[in-house]
Design brief:
Blueprint: E1 5-9, E2 11-14, E3 20-23, H1 26-34, E4 38-42, E5 57-60, H2 84-99, E6 104-107, H3 109-117, E7 122-123, H4 126-129, E8 148-152, H5 157-162, E9 166-169, E10 176-177, E11 184-190, E12 195-200, E13 205-208, H6 220-237
Parallel strand pairs: 1-4, 1-5, 5-6, 6-13
Antiparallel strand pairs: 2-3, 7-10, 8-9, 8-11, 11-12, 12-13
């Protein structure tokens, strides 16, 4: 059986000597491979969309803050760097895969971008807008170290994948989902009510606020997220 081909958008960035580069962290690639998939880098150029029909799934990685203009807001105090060109590139990929009924896994920024694609909004900075929230930006030497607890809905995909109603996760975000987009359901929450996971009504799109790719080596339940997503890509390809 052919391995599922899973596209991962590259981000535009600059090297230490200020030369333009494309960036993709190896951990995303590694865990798609270990889950039985074939990762395919998607360069942020118009020609990349010609590959849409050859993809079985899409992984949206973490990255910069999304431009608040995309969800009808002006920038507020606390927002970090944005890249509207990158946002529009990844939003178009969400549209391409949605039209083809192909699975999408959004991680951290990708989780938030899924919500924006469905008409939802974002809390631009937890510390300034939701000052009673927990700390969601851990400062630990080990990026894969568990930091806080997420409670999972028994009706969500992640519950069936992880086989538990609570999971310990890492946390590296200062933004969060505010109003959920149309056709999305929250499936996981931190103790302060911050939405930590979501899914689409058809269960083909999953959003996760933490970084399972940094925890998968030490935590089997995090690894199962990638395995289940790769399996979903195979199942959906047969339809």
């Amino acid at each position: 059986m052919r391995q599922p081909v899973i596209g991962i958008p590259l981000a535009m960035d600059f090297s230490e000597n200020h030369r333009p580069v494309f960036r993709l962290y190896q951990t995303y690639v590694r865990w798609i491979q270990r889950a039985g998939g074939t990762p395919l880098a998607l360069f942020p150029i118009p020609e990349s969309f010609s590959l849409a029909d050859s993809l079985d799934g899409l992984l949206l990685p973490g990255g910069a803050d999304a431009d608040p203009y995309l969800y009808g807001q002006e920038p507020m105090r606390g927002i970090a760097s944005t890249d509207c060109q990158q946002d529009r590139f990844e939003l178009q990929w969400i549209q391409e895969m949605t039209q083809r009924e192909r699975p999408i896994l959004g991680i951290c920024r990708g989780h938030q971008l899924l919500n924006i694609a469905h008409g939802g909004t974002i809390c631009q900075d937890l510390e300034t807008q939701w000052p009673q929230s927990l700390c969601h930006q851990q400062h630990t030497c080990n990026l894969g170290e568990a930091f806080h607890t997420v409670s999972l809905s028994s009706e969500g995909v992640l519950f069936s994948v992880i086989k538990a109603d609570r999971i310990r996760t890492n946390s590296y975000h200062h933004q969060a989902i505010d109003c959920l987009g149309e056709g999305l359901v929250a499936t996981g929450w931190a103790e302060d009510g911050v939405i930590e996971s979501l899914q689409s009504n058809d269960q083909l799109q999953w959003g996760i606020q933490w970084h399972p790719e940094l925890m998968a080596l030490a935590y089997p339940e995090q690894r199962r997220i990638f395995e289940a997503f790769a399996d979903l890509c195979i199942q959906q390809r047969k339809i």
